[in-house]
User: Fold this.
Amino acid sequence: MAISFINWIAGKFGTTKTDATYVEMMAALQEYRIRELAFNTCISMIANAVGKCEFKTYKNGKEDKGMEYYLWNVEPNVNQNSTVFLHKLIYRLYSDNEALIISTKHRDGRELLVVADSFEKPVEYPQKMQEYKGVVVGDVSYDKTFKESDVIHLKLNHADMKLVLDALNQSYAQLVAVATQNYTWANGKHYKVHVGQIAQNDDDWQTNFAEMLKRQVKPFLEDANGVLPEFDGYQYEDIGGKPDAQRSTRDIRALVDDIFDFTARGFCIPPVLLFGDVAGTQDAMQRWLTTCIDPLCDQIQEEIIRKRCGYDEWKKGTHIRIDTSAILHFDIFGNAANIEKLVGSGAFSINDILKATGQSEIAEEWASQHFLTKNIGVIEDVANAIDGKGGE
Assistant:
């Protein structure tokens, strides 16, 4: 955070860190923290959701759990598991509005996938492959020029949404600062000191007065218990510090909540999910999956298919599909009646259901068979069956 904050300070004040005053630095740090908290909270929600998805791989039309499956679901590289890898991918995508995945080789020859921390923005050509230079992963800089076909390049929006949100949140951060100052002043102690003419005529009056404020008045205002001596020529009058019933920390919290609200909406997250509200959660979750997670996963799987499969293999049925059904928690016992209907429909076997609910499959032939209940059928067939059994 330190380096990014210093860079942000330089851009905000048009100066370096040491040139800004302490007050400006603290105010800017407060603004930066609120914005980053809202941004990182939203990104964590999206990354956690994508991290729960299963990247299903298919070869020649049949599901295949080979090395490609292992790369996307277990270990993309020697230093990251798939969840950490996807978190970094989503963070880079939303922070920079684009992300780059490159393929490299381990010393034992197996393929590794890593997310680039930075790269030079390529020149866009309509009929020629783009080239990516200056790719950096961690502390390693690649001298190699990567062609478009060599990388998985994701782009979030045509225009960078984060820049718009930062500008909007900056205005709200100023309102938060003002509300904080007002609350602090209203709940503080403020005294007016009337100094008699005689006292003002003393030698070194200003120096002695400042020293008295430091030694006697300041401890009285700050300590839990204190005594304020009153000398001849000095009269103290309380002019503030009485808490205003109309001012509270809730006013400040409401402004901070607005920043979270704007950020969530900018990333297509229903605010109720961000704030943890219970009412309307189910509808909000479905909307979030439809407008945010599904389009994001569609882009990722499309980019993987066109770069790692190609048209010829795709035509044969070799592709990848990101299954987002695992994002929602599923209670297998609470949905027993629905499961029975699914099995009885003939479309799903018992192992299909177990797999969809994250359970271990049964290594028995009957568990992979499909069953169909007999209480529903074409009316003529049911009538004939009844007549065959002696019915009327």
User: Anything to note?
Assistant: Residues 48 and 211 are 57 Å apart (CA to CA).
